[in-house]
Model the fold of this input.
Amino acid sequence: MTSRDSILAAVRQNQPAPLAPVPAIPSFARDTEPLLEQFKSVLLSMGGKLAPPVDRGDLDGLVHSLFPDATVICSATLEVRGTRMLDGSTDPTALADVDVAVVRAAFGVAETGSVWLSEEELKVNALAYLAQHLIVLLDPSCIVGNLHQAYRDFRFNTARYAVLVTGPSATADIEGVLVHGAQGVRSLTVAMVAP
Done:
């Protein structure tokens, strides 16, 4: 028996019985401004952008109006056609030249201006990081108040991969010079569109 095995065996043998129940976590709900307005305000403060209101049937037009020079548009949603097909078998390295990626978020978090994406929404996880620009479609009725409420979502227990994205990639040096797009997307634009 190795040292590791003997240590783990001793830990298992000396577990308290019965195991203490997991404490209930309060929701920490706050009375604040309406969720949609709070989400928009925080998103903008984190460097994100809001797309102008658009009809659900004109999402392709929205993408082209926001990024008219984009040549490679990769959509992980059937709502936007894009110029490159994407499915779960797509090699992540094939996304290195994507100008614009379009995804639909499962939900947003008003407190942080974040959108929640998993492998189900992204199809290929690297899409959220290799694209130059990310457009996120978000149903305004799918915004929760804070992170405590977000973590109660059942998808956190079932997703193999999930990320809360808040604004574009950013880094700052010691002199306080902020650079967007240093390690990921250069811009994050949220379009409020019901499915």
